[in-house]
Design a protein that fits this description.
Number of helices: 6
Shape: globular
Distance between the termini: 14 Å
Low-confidence stretches: none
Radius of gyration: 15 Å
Largest sheet: 7 strands, parallel
Structural class: alpha/beta
Oligomer: single chain
Length: about 170
């Protein structure tokens, strides 16, 4: 198990202090949400924040795009120093193309799965993914109640990965 700290929950007046403290504590990843106010009715971090964290931390940055058009953000993510990038499958009509573009930009790629999203698409792309992000809340807001019936998805993803001979990390948000 690895621990990822979400900067969406940080106090914006103390981000540098928090980044340095969590770095020293040995976190495994930074989790940074990018929201557009369209796909989800909220805004979160921006690319200036990601760049600033990259300047003071060598901890890998995992960015979760909660946006209507993920393809529009790829170069900005790469330029900001993102290491891992996930997108919501519901927003991508051609996931193979998007996955390849993300990899071509030097980032690891994951797909985010909402609580109500069926896993029927996954067998078609699982071999191309570096990880899967299972949402246990509706995307867009911190502090929501855990949706317990999302847990079987984790087991189903693990079973499919094992069936394919993949050691696929599964993130839980």
């Amino acid at each position: 198990m690895q621990v990822s700290a979400s900067l969406m929950c940080a106090n914006p007046l103390n981000i540098e202090r928090d980044v340095r403290e969590l770095d020293a504590a040995g976190i495994d990843f930074w989790h940074m949400d990018i929201m557009d106010g369209v796909y989800v009715p909220n805004l979160a971090l921006n690319f200036d924040t990601i760049k600033a964290v990259r300047q003071i931390s060598r901890v890998p940055i995992d960015t979760h795009l909660m946006v209507q058009s993920p393809a529009d953000y790829l170069e900005m993510c790469a330029d900001a120093g993102v290491d891992y990038l996930s997108f919501h499958i519901e927003q991508v009509p051609f996931p193979h193309r998007l996955i390849q573009r993300i990899k071509d930009l030097g980032m690891k790629v994951g797909v985010a799965i909402n609580p109500a999203t069926d896993l029927d698409f996954l067998p078609y792309i699982i071999d191309k993914l570096d990880y899967v992000l299972v949402m246990t809340v509706e995307p867009g807001f911190a502090g929501q109640r855990f949706i317990g019936n999302t847990l079987p998805k984790i087991a189903a993803i693990r079973a499919l990965a094992e069936e394919r001979g993949l050691d696929l990390p599964i993130q839980v948000d």
